[in-house]
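hey all, quick one before standup. I had two proteins in the batch that finished overnight and I want to keep them in one place so we stop losing track of which output belongs to which input. First protein below, input sequence then C-alpha cells straight from the run.
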Amino acid sequence: MIEKTSGIVLHHFSYGETSVIAKIFTREAGLQSFIVPGVRKAKARIKQNIFQPLTIVDMVIYRKERDGLQHIREITNPEPWQSIPYDITKTSIAIFLAEILSGVLKESDTSTAMFDFVKESLVFLDQAEGRIADFHLVFLLQLSGHLGFSPRNNFNEYCCFFNLAEGLYQTVYYGPEICLDKELSQQFTKLSKCGFGDLEGIHLKPEHRKTLLHKTIDYYRFHLEGLKEIKSHHVLESVLH
C-alpha cells in the first residue's frame, strides 16, 4: 500500500555496503523502521544527510501492515532547520531529545497528538531567540503527559517532596534516590506548569538544572520499563553549564 506521511527522523545506521536503516517517527503510524537501499552511493537518488536526527520529512512510503522493515519511495525535507544545526546549544538539545525519543517510543505506539507536540516543540526550538537553557526540562515534562505519566499537580506547603516513583508530591521525604527535596520539588512543579513561551521567566541555578535533568531521567526510568541508559545528557550538561 502506498501512503503519504510526515515524519521525524530519530536516527539511522549503516546496513550492508550501501544501505541504511532509519528509525522515523511518523504521524500516522508511529515509530517505523525503514530500509533505504543505495543511499550511501555517490550518486544516490536519496541523500544520506536527510536522515540526520530530528529532520522533519515528508514521505511517500510502501506500507506493509505486518511488522518489519518499511520502504521509502520518496522523501523530502520541506522546511530545513534554520538554526538547530548551527547553534551548539540547540544542536546539543536536539541530540539529547532524539536519544530520549528513540528510547521511549515503541513501534506499536501511534499518537498524532504526540507527533504534533514533538514537531511543534522542534519548530519553537529552531525559531527561539531568547533563553532556551531549560527547554529540554519543559519538553521532558510535557512529553511525560503524552506517555501517560505526567506529574500530579498537588504541590503545597505540606505535600512538598516529589516522589519520583509515585509521580506526586508527598509530606514525607524518603531520601534522594526516590524523592526531590523541598527546593527542587518547588522548581519541579513550576517547570511542570510551564510552556515553552515561559522559558524567559525560568532562572535555574546551573547545579539545580543539572540535578533536575538527572532526576527527570530517573523519573522516566521509574515509569518506563526497559528504558536504556541515556548518554547524550553529559554533552548537554557541558554546554549548558
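OK second protein, same deal, sequence then C-alpha cells:
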Amino acid sequence: MLGSTSSMLVDEQMVPENSVQQIQLLASTNDGYGGVRVEIKNPMDSNVFGDLLRASISQWRQKGTKGVWIKLPIEHANLIEAAVKEGFRYHHAEPDYLMLVYWIPKTAHTLPANASHRVGIGAFVINSKREVLVVQENSGSFKGTGVWKLPTGVVNEGEDICTAAIREVEEETGIKTEFVEILAFR
C-alpha cells in the first residue's frame, strides 16, 4: 500500500499477455471483523470517487471482504451521493462526519446498528458435570490470541437479554442452552 495518509492507493494486477495494469483504489484498513474502514482525508471530485469506489468494491469482493465503513468528514459531503449510488447507506452521523456502510456478500448483513447505547452479554454456561463452557474468538481483538473466555455478544435492538444470551451461545458454539438467571448487571 502506498501513502497511508492518502485516500487512494495503487494496486497492480496482472492482465492478459503478462502485462501489468495499475488500478487506483481507496486506501483502507482492516477492521478486525472481516471488513475494511476507509477514511476520506483529501478533497476529491465525486465522479473520481465513484470510479475509485467501484474499483475498490470489486477488489474487496474478490478478497472476501464483508463490510465496508466509510468515514466521510463534513468537508467532503460532495461524495455522499456517489457512495449512495453504489449501495452505501447511512450508519450514523456526528457533528463533523458521516459514517456510511456497505455489506458486500449476498447474505444478510451483520453490521451493528447505530448505538444510542449497547447491551452486551456474557454467558456463564455450566453442565451437569460442573464444567464451564469457554470459547476462543474467530474475530475481533481476541482472535488468534489463544485466550479462552466465556461466550459473549451484543443484544440486538428490541431483543430480550435472556433470548440474546441463548442465541449468542448457540451462534458461537452450536450448543442449545436454557436461560436460568442473570448473575450480574452493570
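Flagging for whoever picks this up: The beta strands are 8-15, 19-26, 29-30, 36-39, 67-73, 89-94, 97-103, 120-122, 152-154. The first helix runs from residue 46 to 63.
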